[in-house]
Amino acid sequence: MHCPVCSSINTGKVGNDTYYCSNCLLEFDFLGGQYQIYYIDDEGVSFVLKDKGEAKMLSESFHEGNELLFRERLEELISKS
Ligand SMILES: [Zn+2]
Q1: Per-residue pLDDT tens for 22-74?
Q2: Fewest Cβ atoms nearer than 10 Å: which of 6, 25, 26, 38?
Q3: Could you tell me the distance, in angstroms and rounded to a whole number, from the CA of residue 52 to the centre of ligand 1?
Q4: Distance between CA atoms of 3 and 38, rounded to whole angstroms?
């Protein structure tokens, strides 16, 4: 299974139709040809990301090690949804 966000194959199955990308640190599921991307926070709360662009933005700020930016982006995404 390729990650829909980064196309990496560093993904693992974590449940029924649910996968985890160890590159993006995001989860996604694949139902009926449609995928949905989630971010799971430290407390196990999952946030649905609307599209690939948002997921990529979030993943990038995480990889930059900029936790403040990451939190800001996450909060922005949550408030929009
Ligand atoms: Zn990925």
Answers
A1: 999 999 998 888 889 999 888 988 889 988 998 999 999 988 999 898 889 88
A2: 25
A3: 10
A4: 12
* pLDDT tens sequence across 9-24: 999 999 988 999 999 9
Tell me the CA–centroid distance for residue 62 and ligand 1, in Å: 12
Place of tokens 């909060």: 75
End-to-end alpha carbon distance in the chain: 27
Structure confidence at residue 45 (pLDDT): 87
79: CA distance to ligand 1 center in Å? 23
Ligand 1 centroid from CA 25, angstroms: 7
Domain edges within the chain? 11-80
d(CA 21, CA 8): 8
